[in-house]
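Listing 4. Sequential folding, example run.
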Amino acid sequence: MDLFGNMTLNAVQIIQLMLAPAVMINACGLLLLGINNKYSLVVNRIRLLNEEKRRLMLKIGEKAPTTDDNVRLESIAHQIKALTYRARLVRNTVLCYTTSVALFVTTSLILGVSSVLSLGKLNFLIITTFLLGMTFVFIGIVFAGLETKKGYDIISYEVKAHE
């Protein structure tokens, strides 16, 4: 499969071809920035809930637990379990976006090498790595969507538990 036919590309055209993966690297960087903020929030929330659970357990150890204490402990346990699942979704999102960046960088490098050395045989590899990068972006977006839904489910549970 010869993507460019027999035409010879000049330096400007080669750079233009290498920019498509670079734009995707930039887009993935923005996605990573947003999801890393979510990851920090989820981890901090787990830590806060664990700290609250420890304080509540100490309080219960000193006297008989009230119904409110038991309800809160159950709520905390449920939220920690759900937040741990949510953290896994965020981790998977980050891994997909990071893999995408690696594939887009690889696409640019192969494109550059192919153009400089006039290796038209690498065109299939160029297209394949770029499409794999886009696939990982899509999978990352699916994980991000699932994570957002899980975040809503956790908040809904907490609100219902305290009504």
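-- end of first protein; second protein begins --
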Amino acid sequence: MGDVVNEELARVVAEYSFAYLMTVTADGRPHAVAVQPRPVGDVLHVKELGNRSRTNAQERPRVSLLWPPEDVHGYSLIVDGEAQVDGGALRLTPTRAVRHRPHGDGSGVTGCDSDCLPIELDAG
């Protein structure tokens, strides 16, 4: 990616007010906390991680961010990536991004029984 997280992804992220950071505990249980990720350079930056989220991300850096829809018929945004913990903050390098909602008007694209709109994360 260039100087900024993929421009389309940055634009879509700006449409949401908050996300859930999804990490995994040592015994395999999911752990979710509300956060406000912001595009900074070529990553998504999350400030002020709690102890459990920080430990989970350090030990198991494959994490996800889930932005819930603003209304019942809207899209959720799901971004998977590799986390790097820096002090009390997290930097997520996106590896996959998709806007998702349950069966809707059938206008979704490929590989999803629901209405899925992948966001291309090209490397160049």
